[in-house]
From TrEMBL:
Name of the featured protein: ATP-grasp domain-containing protein
SUPFAM superfamilies to which the protein is assigned, alphabetical: Glutathione synthetase ATP-binding domain-like
Organism: Paenibacillus dendritiformis C454
Name of one Pfam family that matches: ATPgrasp_YheCD
Length: 362
């Protein structure tokens, strides 16, 4: 009998959510619908529950209105939606791959510096990449001298956490950063840094975790707030990369970052182009951003194992030139839902399942 099971790897908290019907932003119903459409059965599982020696796993499979726990042979195709921070989990995933399992998005958290170095090897991309360096003593001041304004960002973090902006002022620099209040909530603040010296807490942060210093990109603005685009680039049933959708994200008033988790708001591209790039047509911007995004992903997927599904953060200058900000290996996908782009939101789930199904049917 042909194998028609597709594994979906979740972290523990997501799997607990699945059983309680509370998976936050992850739309479980779409996995099931996509499975029906492509003739495969989603088997939700955790890497901790895989017995690599026996190649068996405990998985949760839809059964009536709920999920039934089953012991099954490890599915031959697995869509990874988990992020692993422990080397043991990576080692287990690698052992499954070594035993012939197709795991796509096997690694889905890449250091920003590693990606920058890979992309910089392509001369056609260099004009679209912010000047970037690991933040070391001296590099911040040197970059401020060269660029006038920079961001400091953790090499391996997400949703806008830990990122800061430095700009020149008449007396030195100003900094925009977020810090916990006494009550524990995070709050964005702005401060003067007379003489252009970094405060102690920033120096401590730079020592604690690897940081990058990067030219502040001249992002186009919407109502005087910078915006960027989330571009979903996925392989579909044809196994080729294609653009699933593009949505805009505008920074809130209190900061420069557009992450929805930091208060950024989602907007359709039509609205942003009309307001911020009136001399460009939407079709032109879509074409340019799509070609650029495909170029980036083709480049990255030469070097990174089994990428199938990424969310790029792409900026635009006010002339409509695309700029690379970052590549997310586990796209959270829900900004499409927030923008009311339901078909695209659904497609972000259907494409990876179609891709996985293509390995089972060949
Ligand atoms: N070089 C830059 N210039 C201007 N804005 C930036 C720059 N880098 C990041 N940002 C802003 O900060 C946000 C978060 O940065 P990003 O590199 O995507 O890290 P994260 O992984 O935290 O999302 C971006 O979406 C963008 O709004
Ligand atoms: Mg980002």
């Amino acid at each position: 009998m042909a194998d028609n099971r597709i594994g979906i790897l979740f972290n523990s908290n997501m799997l607990r959510g699945l059983l309680r019907n509370k998976t936050g932003h992850e739309a479980i119903a779409f996995y099931e619908e996509a499975g029906r459409r492509h003739g495969v059965i989603p088997c939700f599982m955790r890497v901790e529950d895989v017995n690599v020696r026996k190649m068996e796993a405990v998985a949760y499979i839809r059964d009536g209105t709920g999920y039934a726990r089953r012991r099954i042979p490890v599915p031959s195709v697995i869509h990874n939606r988990a992020i692993y921070f422990r080397s043991g989990a990576h080692a287990r995933v690698q052992s499954m791959v070594n035993r012939g399992t197709v795991i796509f998005n096997q690694v889905n958290r890449y250091g920003k510096w590693k990606l920058h170095v890979l992309l910089q090897q392509d001369p056609a991309l260099v004009p679209h990449l912010p000047v970037t360096a690991p933040a070391r003593k001296g590099t911040v001041a040197a970059m401020m001298d060269n660029c006038g304004a920079v961001v400091l960002k953790p090499d391996n973090n997400s949703v806008g956490r830990g990122i800061m902006k430095l700009e020149r002022s008449s007396t030195g620099w100003t900094i925009v950063y977020s810090r916990r209040t006494a009550g524990g909530a995070r709050k964005w603040r702005k401060a003067n840094l007379p003489g252009g010296r970094l405060p102690r807490f920033v120096l401590a942060q730079l020592r604690r975790t690897p940081y990058l210093v990067q030219e502040l990109l001249p992002l186009a603005r919407y109502h005087d707030r910078p915006f960027d685009l989330r571009v979903s680039v996925q392989r579909d049933g044809s196994r080729e990369w294609q653009i699933t959708g593009i949505v805009g994200r505008v920074a809130p008033q209190h900061t420069f970052v557009t992450n929805v988790a930091q208060g950024g708001t989602v907007h359709r591209l039509e609205e942003l182009v009309a307001a911020a790039l009136p001399h460009c047509s939407v079709a032109e911007v879509v074409e340019r951003v799509s070609a650029f995004s495909l170029h980036i992903v083709n480049r990255l997927s030469h070097s990174l194992s089994h990428m199938a599904d990424v969310g790029l953060d792409i900026g635009l200058t006010s002339d409509g030139k695309p700029l690379f900000i970052e590549c997310n290996g586990r796209d959270q996908r829900y900004s499409f839902r927030e923008a009311g782009l339901y078909d695209i939101w659904e497609a972000t789930y259907f494409n990876p399942i179609a891709y996985g199904a293509s390995f089972l049917q060949s």
